[in-house]
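Limitations
The structure tokens in this dataset are predictions for the assembled complex, not deposited experimental models. Users should treat interface geometry with appropriate caution, especially where small molecules or nucleic acid strands are included. An illustrative entry is reproduced here so readers can see what is and is not provided.
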Amino acid sequence: MNSVLVVEDDWMHRDFLVRLLQIKGYIVRAAIDGESAMSALQSHVPDAVVLDLGLPGISGYQVARLIRTAPETAGLPIIALTAYALDEDQHRATLAGCNAFETKPVDLDSLAAKLESLIAERSARTA
Amino acid sequence: MQYQITPYALLPLCTALISALLAYDTWRRRGDPASGPFIALTFLVAIWSFGSAFELSSTNVATALFWVRIEYIGIVSAPVAWLLMMLAFSERRSTFSRPWLAFLLLIPLITTAVVWSGASQTLFWTSFYIESLTPLTVVRTTHGTWFWVHTAYSYFMLVAGTVLLLRGLFSSSGLYRDQSLALLIGVLAPWLVNILYISNLVPAALPDPTPLSFLITGLAFSWAMRESSLFELGPMAYREVVQQMSDGVVVLDTLFRIVDINQAAAQAIGSPARQLIGQPLAQALSGWPDLVDRYRGRLNVDAPTNLEVAISSADDLLIYDLRVSPLLSSRGRVTGRMLVWRDSTATKQAMASIQSQKERLENQAVALQAATAAAEAGSRAKSLFLATMSHELRTPLSAMLGYTDLIQHDIATNDTEALEHDLRHIRIAGDHLLRMIGDVLDYAKIEAGKMPVELKLFDVHAVIEAALAAVRPLFERHANRLELQVAPDIGPIYADQLKMRQVLINLLSNAAKFTQSGAITLSVFRTPGWPDDCPIPPDMPIIVQGYLNLRVCDTGIGMSADQLEHLFEDFTQMAPGTSDNVGTGLGLSLSQKLCQLMGGLIVVASEPGRGTQATMILPDRS
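Predicted assembly:
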């Protein structure tokens, strides 16, 4: 089973995302902000990260960059989440190192498909 | 009448002819101010010489006397014409007043009368006879009293004219050397001839050479006039220009008396030029006493100076550009000063008008720029508003849709507990969305100035309790501890209860959202004046009854100075992800506006990592 780290400060989103992804068969861990996400990554490296960009404190963009700089997490697939639906935000997310982009309201099937293909792509590359 | 043919008569005859021709020719081309006296002089010399020629040809006393009398018509008046010509040349005077002319001609007229009357035998000539000298006869006379009067007068005219012209020659710098020489010869010729004649160096048998000398004068002056166009174009033109120019010109001597003045200047002063000439400047300008006082010292200059002179009249302010040029002698001594002034009022006004127009245009450009910037900022704010609203509306909507997905799963798995939980969350998100729409409407109402304020007296405790109840779930979720510091006798306040509660909830939920496992303190207290630890806004009214302060302190993440600066700007500072139970997207911006509607203010202090302190200050109207 693949594991996913959900980084989301909004408690409701955190709640339903964790449960929906569990239903989809992922082992899900959650972090409420950038700092707790970084410490969670230190103890366990998941197969993918679902990252809300609008985090308090360390922003989602900064978290993505931090993930890319650490050698053990550098290749980790990151799917960015934001309620800001502008192209500009997507562009910034890509620049920060995100592999895919999902706007809120989250389309669960689309999110699941992106997770699946990114994880498969990575395992094919590393294999 | 009896005549003899004598070659001696040829000289005066030639003189007469040439003089007559000169007179005629000048008369034809008259126009120079000196031409009148010049015509008179040459004409008189012609008569004189003509008479002289016939006198020399006369063989008896009666004939000789007749021609001598004819001669005297020229003799008596020629010196006067000579003086007038010198005056005309040196002073550039073209007209002479009748009384002045009559005065000058008084003695010549008397002399003529004496010469032509019987009294001539006693007063003018004590003897008049013809002496036969082989081969011709010559008139001999001895002189009476009036002859000497006439002679003295004639010499006086000659001296006066000479002095005038020599003075003019030496003081004028614009003459050419040739012209000066011609004029000098013309002036000196009568003197030279006269000296020769008096000192008996001219043979007694020869006719009186004086008319010849005057002819030399005439020829010299005529040459100067014609060949060099001396007076027709040069000084004449200058004088004409100065006279006619619209700028005022005044020439002053060293004692600041008016020596010359042009028409424009005389007109400006308001007196005719001939009256002003000779007057001290201060006297001429006695109508403007302060002007003379103000500029007295400043005209006394030794180098060309430009001044701006302002003269205020009853309803106008006139501005003149005044140039003071010292007139220097050949040795560099100041012999006088020339003032030239120009009315620059119109120019100054035009320049001022151009300047003000320029300024107005510049101001308009600045205003336009500001308007453009404001429009752009407005447009940016609008875009930001839309983006933010999109974000804010999407967040609870996203939660609602997410839980809907879960509910499908709950139903499929028949998990009623989860179903209940998820439905409750949909409800929370829906309520949040509704509140947010309410906030947007509030915001629109405030912006349109249509937000009603319902002031009434109510218990402060009640509001505090209601607000705390609303934020309690949020506090719990973020594991925040609440500390309450409210005086038991805090009493009632006269304000808008709903708005006060709304603002307090916003402040508390902001504190809770940005603080994790920390302490949030709500202290409520009254102050007689504006609270000491809050900066006084410049436009706050002073309310004597004091203030009610509701202060929320947290131990959360705090804000940077930059964040603080933009804190109250619309939609620019909002908590990310706000499907929390309380608090809405418009946040502090709306709270501040609501507080201001009640006459109060929210003051925020913060430091990154050290928490935030937000104080709602409300004027106490109770």
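Some entries come with short summary sentences. For this one: Chain B has a mean pLDDT of 81.
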